[in-house]
Specification:
It is a single chain. By secondary structure, the chain is of the alpha/beta class. Helix content is about 35%, strand content about 20%. The chain has 18 helices and 16 strands. The strands form three sheets. The chain has a six-stranded mixed beta sheet, sandwiched between helices. Strands 13-12-11-14-15-16 form a six-stranded parallel beta sheet, with helices on both faces. It has a four-stranded parallel beta sheet with strand order 1-2-3-4. Helix 7 packs across helix 18. The radius of gyration is 25 Å and the shape is elongated. The two termini are about 30 Å apart.
């Protein structure tokens, strides 16, 4: 009441005490003040029917603006909130809390949400997974999101570390493409794709651990992606069908080739991987892409994995030997080998971890790490200290993202422009502010 007397434009009252508050006001609410009446559910997100009933109950208190905040147990819960936002005939704020509900905070204007919340700085959030105001405006361009905005994003678990939203949103903006790219924290890929199946959800990047499941979830799969057995890019065609591609293998292999050419004398007529012993750590989606690409270039591929059965499965597919990580410590049949880590070992926040000891790294002439957060992992740092040519996962990330951009937009990628955008990835604050 004091806030109202002092001229606050909005006052937010908890639904449970709204009737008492209205009686206390006894019709004396200032004309220039809007009353938000809020309901918070910290357990789950109810059914659409229950949410609609709740909207009616809140509206009956005399609220100018209805506010409902629920909790996501999985990302598909957010779809029910989007449905309520679209159907509601009164001003409504509808948010779903925690990491799995993050998209509700960014996409609410697309579905008619009255407003969203952002913290003034990182670490000062009033709720878990709340973005900063700067990210909402500068990364997600929330003021430009409307009903016609197409939605893209990265599907993963975990996914909060990904720099893809910074990169793709800036790339979309640079060509005037009306789209937003968000992180999707997904537990069950098939369930997610079945829920968010409208044409508005136009394409997805796919990362750990969903790249192999993505092959089974697509309506059509590009032949190379099918041979690899992993999809990292999904595009929804105009007929509604999902088509899967793999841009990882070109991104990673070309990055390694260029890294070798820049540091060692090579024959320009053949791949610098031809005839070389190429050791892949990891047998997941990225491991399959690297193994496939290296074999295509004429390398002799070895698969090493923590679980030997998984290593053996991939090794049988590409026609090479399989090792455990323990075996790899003493594996040095020849000099000049190439090592490619495709696991998440060493990724932030576990920056002190490495898949291979420094002693074992002495046998390798070239070391690539698919991890790009941090840009210099412990593996790359120690490999460089041993005299190896090192290739950062950031280079693979940039190149595979270029391929994704072309699939998403149907536009040719401008290499220089794309690289100028990626120069800000290590420090998003250097991006041009639009506050």
């Amino acid at each position: 009441m004091l806030a109202m007397e002092l001229g606050a434009e909005y006052v937010d009252i908890e639904f449970k005490v709204a009737d008492k508050f209205m009686r206390l006001l006894s019709g004396k609410k200032p004309e220039n003040c809007k009353l938000i009446v809020s309901s918070h559910n910290y357990e789950n997100t109810p059914s659409v029917e229950e949410l609609a009933n709740l909207v009616a109950q809140i509206q009956a208190t005399g609220a100018d603006i209805v506010k409902i905040a629920t909790t996501a147990t999985e990302i598909v819960d957010v779809a029910r909130m989007f449905q309520i936002l679209v159907q509601c005939q009164v001003p409504i704020i509808g948010l779903v809390m925690n990491d799995r509900g993050f998209i509700s905070r960014v996409l609410c204007p697309k579905y008619g949400g009255y407003l969203t919340f952002g913290s003034l700085e990182k670490g000062k959030e009033s709720a878990a997974a709340q973005p900063t105001v700067a990210d909402l405006i500068n990364v997600y361009s929330i003021k430009q999101i409307g009903p016609d905005t197409r939605v893209f994003g990265i599907i993963g678990k975990p996914v909060g570390h990904s720099k893809s939203p910074i990169l793709h949103n800036e790339a979309f903006r640079s060509v005037g493409f009306n789209a937003v790219y968000v992180p999707f924290l997904v537990d069950d890929l098939a369930k997610f794709l079945n829920t968010y199946s409208s044409p508005d959800f136009a394409g997805f990047s796919c990362t750990i651990p969903h790249k192999e499941a993505a092959v089974r979830c697509c309506d059509e799969v590009d032949p190379i992606a099918r041979d690899i057995g992993a999809v990292n890019t999904m595009v929804r065609r105009s007929d509604g069908k999902l088509v899967g591609y793999n841009t990882d293998y070109v991104g990673a292999i070309s990055a390694i080739e260029d890294g070798i050419r820049a540091s060692q004398p090579t024959d320009p007529s053949t791949s610098p991987l031809a005839g070389r012993l190429f050791v892949v750590i990891g047998a997941g989606g990225a491991g399959k892409a690297l193994a496939y690409g290296a074999k295509e270039k004429g390398a002799r591929v070895v698969i090493a994995n923590r679980t030997f059965a998984r290593a053996q499965e991939l090794a049988n597919l590409i026609g090479g030997p399989a090792l455990t990580l323990a075996d790899l410590e003493n594996y040095h049949p020849e000099e000049g080998m190439i090592l490619a880590n495709t696991t998440a070992i060493g990724m932030h926040p576990n920056v002190n971890e490495t898949p291979l000891s420094k002693q074992a790294l002495k046998s390798y002439a070239v070391v690539f790490d698919a991890v790009y957060t941090p840009k210099e992992t412990r593996l790359l740092r120690e490999a460089a200290e041993c005299g190896a040519t090192v290739v950062s996962g950031l280079e693979m990330f940039i190149r595979q993202a270029m391929g994704q951009f072309e699939h998403f937009t149907g536009m040719p990628v401008n290499d220089n422009k794309f690289r100028s955008i990626t120069s800000s990835l290590d420090n998003p604050n250097t991006m041009k502010p639009r506050l």
